[in-house]
Write a structure and sequence with these properties.
Elements lengths: L12 E7 L4 E9 L8 E2 L15 E2 L1 E4 L5 E4 L8 H8 L2 E4 L13 H10 L9 H23 L3 H8 L4 E6 L5 H13 L7 H5 L1 E5 H11 L4 H4 L4 E7 L4 E8 L9 E3 L4 E3 L3 H16 L8 H15 L7 E4 L12 E2 L2 E4 L1 H25 L4 E7 L6 H11 L5 E3 L8 H12 L2 E5 L3 E9 L5 H4 L5 E3 L5 E11 L4 E3 L4 E9 L7 E9 L16 E10 L8 E2 L5 E12 L6 E8 L2 E4 L3 E3 L4
Parallel strand pairs: 1-8, 8-9, 10-17, 12-19, 17-18
Antiparallel strand pairs: 1-2, 2-3, 2-4, 5-6, 5-7, 10-11, 11-12, 11-13, 14-16, 15-16, 19-23, 20-22, 20-25, 21-22, 24-28, 25-26, 26-31, 27-28, 28-29, 29-30
Helix pairs in contact: 3-4, 3-5, 7-13, 9-10, 9-11, 11-12
């Protein structure tokens, strides 16, 4: 374990990490006392879970009543008798709702269709942001209850920090600024932070991949990674997503532990819920038109809770116990309330997830900026012995050493999120797509690509022929970026009216296709997506009128788009010069859903 230094602040502080997972969620925290070395602690007792010693996660479930009020959350939503109560009173269950946040471009079209078809719809009248807000508020309530009960002078401790807590929210590698904006809004609606600049500064984000690295550093990375500097792929296998990231220790003379991301991170929708989905598809086909057709959903749930986590051997027959001794049908392999499956059939439910991890790890190694020799698998799905054994078997011929930490892999993200806040081991990250801006450039008569696009040629106010819809790359894909490095590109705007520059907007675009240096908007067009809009107030800017060669009066703004990609949150601003001095805008970053 890497030693941690004492907290240098002047007042007590509480850090809460909230890991909202697709199927299970957890909380970790640290109390920062001046002069004391902070410790990472998990919340291990929850309402309706008191009888389970050391339980570090609760189901990600909320029940709403007919009026839209929250009635049961987490373990309370799974306690005995709740299903009957919900049926009698018309409650609606929200589960797997995290997947409703997924970016539209986060996976292929077929996989998107599978997700859209299989994940339960949101309750009528509730947006995903509102549901996440309700769940975040519940997690904070659970943290408060636990800290008050387990710490000496717990109520006084909570009272001293509750108005000024810092929060860390974790999210899949594939989530981007738009999803962070929704989660930030959920934190405001849920009462975690006020909607002010100071309040917003108390909330930070970390990817599940990076949080898992921090957990692994504290719980024992392989020696080849920590001492020799070999690259390591960290696989966070969760309920909904499998997040794959690659890191390497930086060479800093051994004075401190720092890592750099060495390949573009990945996010795949092949978590453990998809094993259950594949089982459900099989059951639908196998039991259709049988007497047990109406029991398929119940049988699927039984598979999820018992057969799936216990599965270890594809050569042995497997059983789903779902009914009583009176439930029998030899034609459906059902005897005494148990459905018999061939082990090879159950193995096939896991196979897409296994292939996803293996292919993802090999792709990380191919793209990495240094040799990769080790793989660390964490997350709730990593507890599956079958999954781990299959990945180990597939990667061994490639010379990869695969390990699984002994300590509570299911709370890797929440513990790792606190370590991210306290230790900040990662100081550079890798761009996972190509970022740029559509602009216009001087028209070149002899360039065949320009001549093919004569419909995009125009004459600027200053009197020059230019061609539009050219993609200007600001940051290519798979480039290592330090946290403080700025990427800048100069542009200009012209207008006949001064008022057009009072409030200016600038769009940042991303390219997700296979072309190494994309140049034109009309080539591979579906793979260009709008990342965000930068909005800036320039009403105080002094612009002098200019005169074109044709005598036309116009105004011109020369500016630079400045982007910071190396942080866990995307940052952007506009720089321009006034009276020879560089000025930086107080820019607002807007996303489609914000």
């Amino acid at each position: 374990m890497t030693p941690r230094t004492p907290y240098r602040g002047f007042r007590r502080k509480l850090i809460l990490a909230l890991d909202v997972g697709t199927t299970y969620s957890g909380i970790s925290y640290a109390v920062l006392d001046p002069g004391q070395v902070p410790e990472i602690k998990p919340v291990t007792r929850f309402p309706a879970h008191e009888h389970i010693s050391g339980a570090s996660k609760i189901p990600t479930i909320i029940y709403y009543d007919r009026e839209g009020q929250v009635r049961a959350v987490g373990a309370e939503a799974t306690k005995e008798g709740i299903f009957e109560t919900a049926e009698d009173e018309g409650w609606v269950k929200a589960e797997w709702f995290k997947l409703h946040l997924r970016p539209a471009n986060s996976t292929n079209v077929t996989q998107q269709q599978v997700i859209a078809q299989e994940i339960p719809p949101l309750p009528v009248g509730r947006t995903v942001t509102q549901v996440v807000a309700d769940f975040l508020a519940y997690l904070v309530y659970c943290a408060e209850d636990y800290i008050k009960d387990t710490h000496a002078n717990g109520p006084d401790l909570w009272a001293s920090v509750c108005g000024d807590m810092d929060f860390v929210l974790s999210h899949p590698n594939g989530w981007e600024g738009a999803q962070q904006a929704q989660m930030r809004r959920a934190a405001v609606i849920g009462g975690l932070i006020p909607d002010t600049q100071v309040g917003q500064s108390r909330l930070s984000f970390v990817t599940e991949g990076e949080a898992s690295l921090h957990f692994s550093i504290q719980n024992g990375l392989p020696e080849g990674v920590t001492k020799k500097g070999d690259g390591v792929v960290v696989v966070d296998a969760g309920g909904g997503t499998i997040d794959i990231s690659a890191y390497g220790r930086t060479k800093n003379g051994g004075r401190e532990t720092t890592f750099e991301e060495i390949a573009p991170p990945q996010c795949h929708f092949h978590g453990s819920v998809f094993v259950t989905i594949h089982a459900g598809v099989y059951l639908e086909n196998f039991l259709k038109e049988s007497a047990f057709q109406d029991d398929i959903e119940h049988i699927q749930r039984c598979f999820d809770k018992t057969t799936k986590p216990r599965f270890r051997n594809s050569s042995e027959q497997q059983f789903i116990k779902f009914g009583s001794t009176r439930d029998n049908d030899p034609s459906c392999n059902i005897r005494f309330g148990q459905l018999k499956l061939e082990g090879s059939e159950v193995a096939s439910f896991f196979e897409p997830s296994v292939r996803c991890i293996v292919n993802g790890v090999l792709e990380q190694r191919r793209q990495a900026h240094r040799p990769v020799t080790h793989v660390v698998i964490v997350g709730g799905f990593a507890a599956s012995d079958w999954l781990f054994a299959r990945v180990l078997e597939a990667l061994r011929p490639h010379g990869m050493l695969v390990v699984r930490p002994e300590n509570h892999v299911n709370k890797a993200v929440s513990d790792g999120a606190i370590s991210f806040y306290l230790d900040h081991f990662v100081n550079s990250r890798v761009s996972k797509l190509t970022y740029g801006n559509f602009c216009h450039i001087p028209f070149v008569e002899t360039d065949p690509e320009h001549r093919r696009r004569m419909n995009q040629v125009f004459t600027s106010l200053s009197g020059y022929r230019r061609i539009s819809d050219v993609f200007d790359i600001i940051l290519p894909k798979n480039v290592q970026v330090s946290e403080l490095k700025e990427f800048r590109k100069p542009y200009f705007r012209e207008s006949e009216r001064r008022i057009d520059f009072q409030k200016a907007t600038f769009v940042v675009w991303g390219y997700r296709g296979a072309i190494e240096k994309p140049r034109w908007r009309d080539v591979d067009a579906p793979f260009f997506t709008e990342i965000c809009t930068i909005e800036v107030d320039l009403s105080a800017l002094t612009l002098q009128p200019m005169r074109s060669e044709r005598g036309m009066i116009f105004f011109r703004l020369d500016y630079e788009i400045v982007l910071l990609f190396g942080l866990t949150e995307f940052k952007a601003l506009i720089a321009y010069r006034e009276n020879g001095v560089e000025m930086r805008s107080q820019a607002k970053i807007l996303y489609d859903n914000s």
